[in-house]
Amino acid sequence: MVAELKTVAEPNIFFCDDESMCDAKRMDRLADLIREAGIRKKYFLYGRVDSIVKHPELFAKWATIGLAQVFVGMEDYSDQRLAAMNKGITSAQQVEAVRILDDLGIMMYASYMVDPAYSREDFRNLLAYVRRLNTNPPPSRC
Q1: Residue 127 CA to chain centroid, in angstroms?
Q2: 74 closest CA partner among 114, 44, 28, 107
Q3: What is the arrangement of strands in the sheet containing 67-75, beginning at the earlier edge strand?
Q4: H or E element that contains 12
Q5: Beta-strand runs (E) in 33-138
Q6: Under the phi-then-psi rule, with left for phi > 0, alpha for psi from -120 to 50, and beta for the rest, what region is 66?
Q7: Which pLDDT tens digits describe the chain residue by residue (142 residues)?
């Protein structure tokens, strides 16, 4: 993989694996190899809330070699709905994952699933939740 990365002229690399960090040992070793090879790129990948919370040191290592953005399926803001989806995470873990990536300077792209049964109140709650998590909102365009 490192040999292939050396041939890529583009400055941005997107790992399209559904969960790049699920094999923490492999990704730890890959980070070491990328650093040793002196490859300077910006990396983008998919990650899970539980992986971020379980392996913050791995994300920290990747941040030092160029990890810029992580796409995370948050799915919902409600612990009850997360449990019904068998997501295996809680909203508290989501908050922790956001904090970890933010502290590392890694941008999170969070995705949510909107239930067709959402009420106006559900949409308001989702919006309020996302705003609470957004520690670095974009500048106002007034």
Answers
A1: 19
A2: 114
A3: 12-15, 42-47, 67-75, 107-112
A4: strand 12-15
A5: 42-47, 67-75, 107-112
A6: left
A7: 999 999 999 999 999 887 889 899 999 999 999 999 999 999 999 999 999 999 999 999 999 999 999 999 999 999 999 999 998 999 999 999 999 999 999 999 999 999 899 999 999 999 999 999 986 655 555 4
